[in-house]
Amino acid sequence: MRAPLSPLLLCLALGACQPPAHAPTTPSPEPASPPVTAAPPEPEPAPVAGPRPMRIAFGSCNDLDRPQKLWGHIAALEPDLWIWLGDNIYADTTDMAKMQLLYDRTKAEPGYARLRKLTRVVGTWDDHDYGHNDAGKEYPKRKEAQRLLLDFLDEPQGSPRRAQKGVYASYDIGTGPRSLRVIVLDTRYHRDPPGPNADVLGEAQWAWLQDQLAGSPAAVNLVVSSIQLVATTHPHEKWANFPAARQRMLALIGASGARNVVVISGDRHYAELSRAPVGSDDTMLYDLTSSSLSRPWDEDPKEANPDRVGDYYWHVNFGLLELDWAAGELRMQVHGEDGQPKIQHSIPLEPVSDGF
């Protein structure tokens, strides 16, 4: 049975529920407008970073039979160049097969192999990779040893460096006011036994060096010496064991007109920064020594150096130069096993703007 319609439904069905003519109707309300808020301010543009500093990393005295702890830290800095300062292997031999094996082992070391893929590698030798402790031009296998070192450094077969007597070379990095010249010396091939008038470089290399410095357009000139140039008081190998040659070197640098000359050296199995005045205006010449990559002293050597700046560091280490062109600063550093700087010193450079 169908349910009866309710009175309301019946009213609607009959059209009898219209409001009376005089009854006012209520209009539907307008939808509320959203509140007006101020537009958020435009973000400040991020500062444009200038070119990162040029980074030159270097080290010496690497004994493959000792732990290789530093390569990861060096690679993490992404250097623009790695420089071997000498004693890159410990061969001490006239057996070229033995020397070749040590170079091959070094190239195969995983940390160093990774670094080689990241950056360019250049360098020189010192006595133990040259062939014999404290050896000079009397070493009988110097020609053969030169070929092996240049192979290790991946020197092109047609390079003039392979035809000359000695491994000295120079490299230009960057352009204009952001330029560096790296001048790599050979302190072994032509070296006399130590003495007051003994020579280190040989006349051909001296003439080449004078041209490299006097004719350099670079903003910074880096001289790579396997042995210390500035330090004079310790009893080990150093330029001061060749007094006339050392004085000639300091005079050449002072008179060359080359800008911002800095020396880096190895050999000592500890790190330090030394300085000495050169030239008529007594400009300070800095010599940053980094040694050793894996074969440090067993105990604190406690060696005095009146020309030292700050303290020395006698644990494993590598060197770093940061050329911050925008800030006008050359930062000289030695980093330790933890990758952190242990020696730091800065010298001013002429600031370079982005629109040079």
Q: Helical segment tally?
A: 8
Rounded to an integer, what's the Rg over CA atoms? 35 Å
Termini separation (Å)? 101 Å
Regions with little confidence, pLDDT below 50 for 5+ residues: 1-43, 45-49
| Number of strand elements | 12
The structural class is alpha/beta
User: Quick one: biggest sheet?
Assistant: 6 strands, mixed
Strand percent estimate = 15-25%
The SSE order reads: HEHEHHEHHEEHEHEEEEEE
Structural account:
The structure is a single chain. By secondary structure, the chain is α/β, with parallel strands linked by helices. It has a single domain, classed as Alkaline phosphatase D (PhoD) (Purple Acid Phosphatase, chain A, domain 2). About 20% of the residues lie in helices and about 20% in strands. It is built from eight helices and twelve strands. The protein has helices at about 5-15, 70-75, 95-110, 110-120, 125-130, 140-150, 205-215, 245-255, and strands at about 55-60, 80-85, 120-125, 170-175, 180-185, 220-225, 260-265, 270-280, 285-290, 320-325, 330-335, 340-350. The protein has a six-stranded mixed sheet with strand order 3-2-1-10-11-12, with helices on one face. The chain has a six-stranded mixed sheet with strand order 4-5-6-7-9-8. Strand 4 and strand 5 form a beta hairpin. Helix 3 (about 95-110) packs parallel to helix 6. The longest helix is centred in the first third of the chain and has 13 residues, at about 95-110. The radius of gyration is 35 Å and the shape is globular. It starts with 6 loop residues before the first helix and ends in an 8-residue tail after the last strand. Mean pLDDT is about 90; it is low at about 1-45 and about 45-50.
